[in-house]
Structure formats: C-alpha cells, structure tokens
Amino acid sequence: MDKDLKNKTLSELEDIVENFGQKRYLAKYIFTFIHCRDAGRISNITTLSKDFRALLAEQDYYISHLNTVRTFSDPDGTIKYLFELADGLRIETVLMTDGKRKTLCVSTQAGCTMNCAFCATAKLGFQRKLTAAEIADQLNIIRKDRGKINNVVYMGMGEPLQNYSAVIKSVRILNHPQGKNIGLRHLTISTCGIADGIRKLADEDIHPRLAISLNAPTDALRSKIMPVNKKYPISALMEAVKYYQRKTQQRVTFEYVLIKGFNDSALHAQMLSRLAHKAKCNINLIEYNPYAPGSFEASSKETIKRFVQILEGAGIETTIRYKKGRKIKAACGQLGADMHT
C-alpha cells in the first residue's frame, strides 16, 4: 500500500483520516500543509494533534520529496533542474520565463518508451513511471525557489498518457483550490499521439489543455521519426481528436518540429493545413534542437517564415516556438541529453 501522503488527492486523504477515526476536515490540513506550505515531514503539520501525527508515522505514512542535484541557467532566462528520485533515478524539469509569465515543463517518466528520432530522452530508454507526488513535487520545489508559476506543461521527459493515472492524479492535486489552485486552462498535457489515451482523457470530469506532437502530415513521413504512428496512424489520431472535441468543446494544439529537408517544404505546409482544418486547433511550430551530432538539422529562418505564411494564409492560427534553453540542453527534444551513459 502506498503510504506517501504527497501522493494522495484530498478525497484519498479524507479516507485515510476517517480510517484512523478522525474528523474528515483534518485531511484539508494535511493537503494544504503539503501543497501550500511545503511540509516535508508529518511532524511539520502542526494543526494535527501530536498523537495523530505520531500515529501516522507509526503506520509508516510519510511525505516524499525530490532531491535537487543541480540547476543550470541559460542567458535567455531558462533554468533547468536536475532532480534525483528516491531510488536514484534522475529527471529534468525546465522553467521558462517570458516577461512576467513563468511556464514549467514537467517530466512524467524517467526515460521514455516512444523512441521518437528527434528526442534525446528516447536514447535513455524507459526506466519507470513517476508517481503523482513526483510530478507535483517538481512544481512544489521550483515554485518555492523561483516564485509563482503561471503555467504547467506536461512536456518534459516521458509520454504523459502512458502514465495516465499518475498524470491525472497530479492534475487533480495541482488544480485543487486547497492546494496550488492552478486553473485547468493553465495545465497542458502533451502527447505523441496515444489515441486511446486521448479518448480516455475526453471522458474525464476535468479537462486540462491538450497538445499533440504531430511533426508530419503523412503516415509515411511520421512513421520514420515517430514509431507510435504505426500503432496510431494519423487517421486514428484525428478520430480521437474529434471525439475529444465533441466531449470537451476544447481546441487542441498540434506541435510540429521543423526538420530541414524532411517535413518543412511548401507542400508539407499545404498538407498540414488541410489536416488542421479537420479539427478546431492551432499549430505550434518548433525549431528542431540538436542534442548530439546526428542526421537532422533545423530548418532555416526563411523556410520557417514561408511555412508560417502558408498556414496563416489557410486560416490556421500559428505560432513559432523559438529556441529557448539550448545552451543548457533544456530546449524541446533535448532533455536527458547530458544523462546518457
């Protein structure tokens, strides 16, 4: 049985409190002390009686925490945190600043199974899924260190929808008004295209924003860089998106990494625009970020500009995510680049 109090939603804490013969309202104290006051030990939750705190400890309940190994700072303001988990595995988390707005990119797995060709994390292989506590604690530590976080994006190491239950639990924890109280429109789950997971997410009673890593407008191209496409081809992915939008009435974001000579031609832009018209969406174009000497190069500024013009000319809302954090290997696709052994 999991005894980590940080890994519990408020309703789960209420059940634990009641099982000890205590009043349900005490669960709010536990939840708030952990997620608002950064309580690291049960003994710190001083609104509970000493006897109850002792009883929780005697029954092996505890409050987990990540260990900050090192931080890296880029001149552009991006900060990368290297965290160590209780079992010695390591993950990376990135804080990006845009004016007064701070966005935190959290990891959901140590390593990844998806093996996307343009991503450094893939080279680590899969190590394990993170718990909801380990996901939420990335925010807890960095918020304590750097102040208020405006947005949280599940775009770090790992595929969020392959760690579905922990990811959704962490969303509930971060969103709860007794905790960090981060609005759902400020929480974004990004997936490489797990169609079954998208449908499952549509059926939830809470709906954070959804981003989908597309990266090619045809199955032939997409399968070359994203093995997931063989199980969930673009047609299956778009059907899942349609289902998601019928259930939630929400826009989705398609993310598209531009790779020189591979997926960045005018024809590719035209094909992408036709695909995008099948859903209520916007497109984020991402400059390819190299993580080691390899076969890919970033598209030129002129190519990116032309690509944008074609999409916008077709009426598709498009933004460019320029490189941030490249000097510390914190940009999109670079997480884990310094962790290869």
Structural topology:
Elements: H1 10-19, H2 26-35, H3 50-58, E1 67-73, E2 79-84, E3 90-98, E4 101-105, E5 109-111, E6 126-129, H4 132-146, E7 151-154, H5 164-175, E8 187-191, H6 195-202, E9 209-213, H7 219-225, H8 228-231, H9 234-248, E10 252-258, H10 266-276, E11 281-287, H11 301-313, E12 318-321
Parallel strand pairs: 4-7, 7-8, 8-9, 9-10, 10-11, 11-12
Antiparallel strand pairs: 1-2, 2-3, 3-4, 5-6
Helix pairs in contact: 1-2, 4-5, 6-9, 10-11
Explain this structure.
The mean pLDDT is 93. By secondary structure, the chain is α/β, with parallel strands linked by helices. The strands form 2 sheets. The chain has a 10-stranded mixed β-sheet, with helices on one face. A two-stranded antiparallel sheet has the order 5-6. The protein has 2 domains: 5-58, DNA polymerase, domain 1 (Orthogonal Bundle); 67-328, Aldolase class I (TIM Barrel), CATH 3.20.20.70. It is built from 11 helices and 12 strands. The chain starts with 9 loop residues before the first helix and ends in a 20-residue tail after the last strand. Helices cover 33% and strands 19% of the residues.
Number of strands: 12
Average pLDDT, to the nearest integer? 93
Strand order of the main beta sheet, please?
Answer: 1-2-3-4-7-8-9-10-11-12
Radius of gyration: 21 Å
- The ordered string of helix (H) and strand (E) elements is HHHEEEEEEHEHEHEHHHEHEHE
How many distinct helices?
A: 11
CATH superfamily of the largest domain: Aldolase class I
**CATH class membership of the largest domain:** Alpha Beta
